[in-house]
Design goal:
- This protein is mainly beta.
- The protein is about 5% helix and about 60% strand.
- It has 1 helix and 10 strands, in the order ββββββββαββ.
- The strands form 2 sheets. Strands 4, 5, 6, 7, 8, 9 and 10 form a 7-stranded mixed β-sheet that branches. A 3-stranded mixed β-sheet has the order 1-3-2, with no helix packed on it.
- β6 and β7 form a beta hairpin.
- The longest helix has 4 residues.
């Protein structure tokens, strides 16, 4: 398989039960967030139904949820998506860092 991922959120692509490749998700800084969508500048991205949300602080990463981090005046948000919206892509991971 092809393992081209570096540090950060990744996507695991399987062929049946065989891991075919691991690749990084694409990062985008988020300006606004709700339960369904994240907005980055003028682009709207759909959230995955099971988006993983983490708050990062000096101690590490802690599991959270969209409603807890959706206040962008309190958090800097980075979202990670797998492919373009036009190709059916979704935001899979959101990392929130308190301002």
């Amino acid at each position: 398989g092809m393992y081209t991922a570096s540090a950060g959120p990744c996507m695991f692509i399987y062929d049946g039960s065989t891991l075919e490749k691991i690749k990084n998700l694409t990062a985008v800084a988020i300006d606004s967030l709700n339960q369904s969508y994240a907005k980055a500048k003028s682009i709207t991205y759909s959230l995955s139904d099971n988006v993983a949300v983490y708050v990062k602080n000096d101690s590490g990463y802690f599991s959270s949820n969209v409603s807890a981090v959706s206040n962008t005046s309190s958090y800097d948000l980075t979202a990670y998506y797998d492919k373009s919206e036009q190709s059916g892509g979704r935001i899979r991971v959101i990392i929130a860092i308190a301002k």
